């Protein structure tokens, strides 16, 4: 990879990346603490890429001059479109999770919860779980759908803030990678929690720990590309250990799906090591 250009961290590079892909110029955007870097795969395309960037900036300047009086609402709309263009998967999961939280009344409307829970809910004189795994052959979505369930507004807000941060970091490198990690960490976290105990559980926390584990491995054993502060990783691991200690139940915070967290984390770490291995053996196979 060849460094083409560095840009301020707050600059929207959507137009630049779209122009490069339209002209079949493979590239990657890396996000550092104070800047963004555009890296090219082929040094022979540096001249063409620089010319495209210049054209994009010239076009943006003309648009800015012609629309100076349109107001802040148009700018906000453009920013929202650019944000969605860069992170559609992250935004889609965010919206779906919010809708499920609202329709399920944050986990209190059991008839809605029953559609997403790992174990089916049967309603008779009272609601009870159907244990076992036979139902998964006919209802395989239950292997993943619990990640959309949240019990309480603090639960959903906490998880979605982490999802927006970590999901965008990964999606800007590869949308397919984010989808793969979402599926694998959901499966690992949900199955681990269900294996430990047949209970009603849910939340994106297992996925979040999986994304954290993946990012840590990639940045630790390869050229850093996600640049997640080490303090965040330490905080989340400490939170995991506190949850496994049972302290949260003692102080009245409630039960924590610790095995979902641990299962997601292990899956993310394994994906990170597998990805690292594939990168290192790829040059040998050429």
Topology summary:
Blueprint: E1 2-8, H1 14-22, E2 27-31, E3 35-40, H2 46-66, H3 72-86, H4 88-103, H5 110-113, E4 121-123, E5 127-129, H6 153-171, H7 175-196, H8 205-221, H9 230-245, H10 247-250, H11 258-285
Helix pairs in contact: 1-2, 4-6, 6-8, 7-8, 7-11, 8-11
Descriptive key words:
60% helix; two-stranded antiparallel ribbon; mainly alpha; 286 residues; Alpha-Beta Plaits
CA distance, first residue to last residue: 17 Å
Shape: elongated
**Rg result:** 22 Å
The number of strands is 5
The CATH homologous superfamily of the largest domain is called Rhomboid-like
Count of separate DSSP helical elements: 11
Structural class by SSE content: mainly alpha
**CATH class division of the largest domain:** Mainly Alpha
How many domain modules? 2
Helical content stands at: 55-70%
Q: How is the biggest beta sheet arranged?
A: 3 strands, antiparallel
Mean pLDDT equals 82
Strand content: 5-15%
Short structural summary:
With 286 residues, the protein is mainly alpha-helical. The chain contains eleven helices and five strands, in the order E-H-E-E-H-H-H-H-E-E-H-H-H-H-H-H. It folds into two domains: 2-85, Alpha-Beta Plaits; 87-285, Rhomboid-like fold.
